[in-house]
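Worked example 2:
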Amino acid sequence: MTRARKVVLSLAAGVALLGGALFVVPPLLLRDGVDYSQAVSIKAAPEYQDPALLEKAWALPVARLYRPGLDFQRNASFCGPASVVNVLRSLGREADQATVLEGTGIQTTLGFVAGGLTLEQLAALARTRLGKKVTALHDLDLPGFRAQLARANDPSVRLILNFHRGPLFGKGGGHHSPIAGYLAAEDLALVLDVNANFQPWLVKSERLFEAMNTLDRGAGLERGLLVIEP
């Protein structure tokens, strides 16, 4: 086979793999069908990634347990599994994204979770891996959501939020990430965004509630909050 033909075949294989990857990028990230382009991005808010406030948040009792082992999702479909890995590490357990799905029945294609994970599927994964009580809370009101945020500082509790980026950033799709702390005086939640392009950020509870209080059309349910406790 000539060198030129080898190059052509390699390029074709790369395109085929890319096409497959695009095919399995989860509808979870794309399926809401709502135009959020008019939303003012929280990136413009002074507290979003304010260094002093972030350091204050990282000093909270649960947040500081996450910081040494913070791991970012390996692809667009892995925000849920990556969130569980981070919870496990915050509890002092060994965990990585390469093995977190083993024995769960969750299949991957080219390393992607086709369709992504709904909150209920993520709850099942968390129960399997953590061996703890895991509750998926849907249809919370704002006071109820704030009450749960306050639990983010309890070392025996872990929270994972399923939200839509649109109400927060004006674009994007569905996502999972841990909430590692809550600055009550400032009414700011610390979101450990498992997407490395975002990094951890702070947001007012009402804006975060709006992002959670969106419909996951694929699941037929409102998005919500996972509460992991003994």
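The domain at 36-229 is CATH 3.90.70.30 (Cathepsin B; Chain A). Residues 3-24 form the longest helix (22 residues).
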